[in-house]
Amino acid sequence: MADNATAPVRKIIHVDCDCFYAAVEMRDNPDLRERPIAVGGAGRRGVITTCNYPARRFGVRSAMPGGEALRLCPDLTLLPVDMPRYRAASQQVMTILRELTEWVEPLSLDEAYLDVSEVTACKGSATLMAQYLRERVREEVGITLSAGVAPNKFLAKIASDWQKPDGLFVIRPEDVDGFVRQLPVEKIHGVGQVTARRLHELSIFTCDDLRQQRPEQLVEWFGKQGYRLHRLAYGEDDRPVVVTREAKSVSVERTFAADLPNLQACQAVLPSLLEELAGRLSRRGRDKPVHKLFVKIRYSDFSTHTLERVRALSGPPQVDDYQPLLAALVTDAQRPIRLLGLGVRFQASGAPTRQLRLFD
Ligand code: TTP
Ligand code: MG
């Protein structure tokens, strides 16, 4: 086994929305919830993009032609693909993730890795953070999110799939060895059907079986991938979470345990929110001139309002910069406020940045 004793332990969360496109459809039309539905698949050559879990019980799957899906499940409702709605839901999910940490690496519309090693929220517990993210996505986006928590990307991704749908599975550092040993080789990302068949022919079914082979032997059989297989069989994966997105805006928001009754109460919490924003800005937006400011409020009835104004600033924004926006936004004196947010937008600039989360 390669020596990993000196490497600091990371905390990685992998999140993946359950039957994502179908989940958005069920959210917007609850009558569909109990019925088998699939998105796409209409027309002569249409294939299914995804289907809900009731449809999966009939064997319907992604990439299946619509006709075949209907043969398996005659009651299947086929819905047209509506990308703008899925993209909007995806953005909402990603925004929630990025409020926890800036170290978010999206893999697709419905899936992302987070490196939460240095996050102090939720008492620093990645398990609590994952639970928190799942609850917020359920409440604010109206769909379910499965999450996996582990010391690296390889295991976090397996973990998020382990108790799907609507599941959370945690692999603690001390559980890694036992978990990986029994893991079937086809669960390893990158082991497709061909490699899996080859491994099975060699009587290698689990990661424990893989460990019985010398790395040189695996390289002889599988080329470069052989060494990777050897590392993964011990649960080792040091790929960093990569952030490729340039921040266009930075914001903070807070939901209050007790609603804020009026504008004065909002003004009273402004300095502490601003302090949080300044902290986030110093990490994320350093040196970038601020172009706009915005304030967001959510009333206790969940209606949400934002107000944005152009305000060029060279330094961090101050309380006085936000006061007029807040006063203009909180006009209804009778409605208590449950959430208050502050943010800045930057002037659009050149190429996207690429940051690596490194541990050394
Ligand atoms: P997935 O996360 O692979 O699948 P899913 O979210 O539908 O189901 P689950 O995660 O619960 O197993 O893909 C996310 C979305 O990407 C999916 O909702 C639809 C789209 N997609 C396609 O368009 N074609 C495909 O072949 C696949 C697999 C997904
Ligand atoms: Mg998914």
How would you describe the overall organization of this protein?
With 360 residues, this protein is of the alpha+beta class. Among the domains are: 20-83, MutS, DNA mismatch repair protein, domain I; 177-232, 5' to 3' exonuclease, C-terminal subdomain (DNA polymerase, domain 1, Orthogonal Bundle), CATH 1.10.150.20; 249-346, DNA polymerase, Y-family, little finger domain (Dna Ligase, domain 1). Helix content is 38%, strand content 23%. It has helices at 20-28, 53-56, 66-72, 83-100, 126-141, 153-162, 176-181, 193-201, 207-211, 215-222, 224-233, 263-284, 319-329, and strands spanning 12-17, 37-40, 48-51, 77-79, 104-108, 111-115, 145-150, 168-170, 242-243, 249-260, 290-299, 304-313, 337-346, 355-356. The strands form four sheets. The protein has a five-stranded mixed beta sheet. A four-stranded antiparallel beta sheet has the order 10-13-11-12. A three-stranded mixed beta sheet has the order 3-2-4. Helix 4 (83-100) packs antiparallel against helix 5 (126-141) and helix 12 packs across helix 13 (319-329). The radius of gyration is 24 Å and the shape is globular. The protein starts with 11 loop residues before the first strand and ends with a strand. The model has no long low-confidence stretch (mean pLDDT 91). The chain binds thymidine-5'-triphosphate and magnesium ion (MG).
